[in-house]
Amino acid sequence: MSFTPPPYPYERLDGVREVAACHEGGAIDCSIGTPIDPPPDFVIEELARAAGARGYPTSAGSLPLREAAAAWLGRRFSVAADADHVAACVGTKEFVASLAHYLKLRDDTRDTVLYPAVSYPTYAMGATLAGLRAVAVPVAAGRLDLAAIDPTDARRALVLWSNSPSNPTGGLDDLAAVAEWGRENGVLVASDECYSDFTWAGPARSILEHGETGVLALHSVSKRSNLAGLRAGFYSGDRDVVSYLRSVRQHAGLMVAGPIQAAVALAYGDDEHVEVQRRRYHARLAVLSAALESAGVEAPMPDGGFYLWCRVPGLDGWQLAARLAEVAGLVVSPGEFYGDGGDNVRIAVVQSDERLELAASRLRDVPLR
Questions:
Q1: How many angstroms separate the CA atoms of 362 and 172, rounded?
Q2: Structural domain boundaries in the chain
Q3: Residues 218, 233 contacting (CB under 8 angstroms)
Q4: Residue-level pLDDT at 364
């Protein structure tokens, strides 16, 4: 069977962008979670040194990078991670998209990927690209409804994805329960934790706090350090799985560039710049949430992440996106992009304070209803 890729979701927003651009001051694009704030100066200086540019970098990641990642896991989550069980990846989206394929090579008796019904679309696409079944798991109050997983699907599953804090909802999963379910059912749990530094309801959480057997945790510098353009992250967890993935990914030629590995090691060695970014995002969420609520939009503050998951009763996601473009010049993502979220929109607070205040002032001037 041949495969024709569907349109990339954000390419479907051209009409919305045209409407938003009609405002004096132009459109305010909050559709994609692309950081706009400056990365740490010391990281950019390390990149400029281009250390390791001449030779081939290690696929699993340099020892300084893996040690820095392991030390960060210890500081952030009180997890005693071993650098030998940490490995680099070429941006976490690449890892999400390719994991199912590599797991299928390891175990060809299973053919299913379980993923949250409202979630980042690459979990399901990873299954499709591997020629596997993608089965959505209902989400209730931000948590995977594990009891809703059909036992037949569980027996066929290679992996269960969790994303906490969630993109797009901002919900926090019960990672202890997810890890326990995976072990009871013999299913690897992959926990996408790239927004963990931006956890607002209590401390940051990792599935590794509940043991490493049968789980993987996935982390990225894209959000925490405003370094999405470097395409770098790491994974850690079950020793046998990490060892297997390190080997197969080395054969596939997946390598983070040497100068980037050196820079990322420094980024994971510093937490001060992340605290600055935390304050920025929380303030922006509060400003836009209040303005949207005053305009008649349900826009509660999230438990984590830098997205507002919004709705107006009686409007679907595309209608609400069109209305926000018309009234406030905001470009947002319809919930349809994220599976079973069609009545919502996702708003990423990744524009400057001034641009988001402009959007807020427009909302105050012309309420949506």
A1: 31
A2: 9-30+273-365, 41-270
A3: yes
A4: 85
Q: How many helices (H) and strands (E) does the chain have?
A: 13, 14
DSSP string, 23-92: STT--EE-SS----SPPPHHHHHHHHHTTT-SSPPPSS--HHHHHHHHHHHHHHH-----GGGEEEESSH
CATH number assigned to the domain covering 41-270: 3.40.640.10
Coil, strand or helix: which one is 196?
helix
Q: What is the pTM of this model?
A: 0.96
Tokens linked to 127:
């299954």
Class of CATH domain 9-30+273-365: alpha beta
Q: What is residue 113's three-state secondary structure?
A: strand
- CA distances, 81 to each of 104, 211, 282 (Å): 27, 10, 29
Give the whole-angstrom CA distance, residue 35 versus residue 226.
Answer: 5
**Do residues 161 and 115 make contact, with C-beta atoms less than 8 angstroms apart?**
yes
Question: Which residue has 């807020």 as its token pair?
Answer: 360
DSSP bridge partners of 133: 112
User: Cα–Cα distance between 322 and 20 in angstroms, integer?
Assistant: 9
Amino acid at 42: F
Give the model's confidence band at 367: pLDDT under 50 very low, under 70 low, under 90 confident, else very high.
low
Please name the helix (run of DSSP H) or strand (run of DSSP E) that holds residue 4, with its range, or none.
none
Q: How far is CA 52 from CA 229, 246, 250, 266, 310, in A?
A: 18, 20, 18, 15, 45
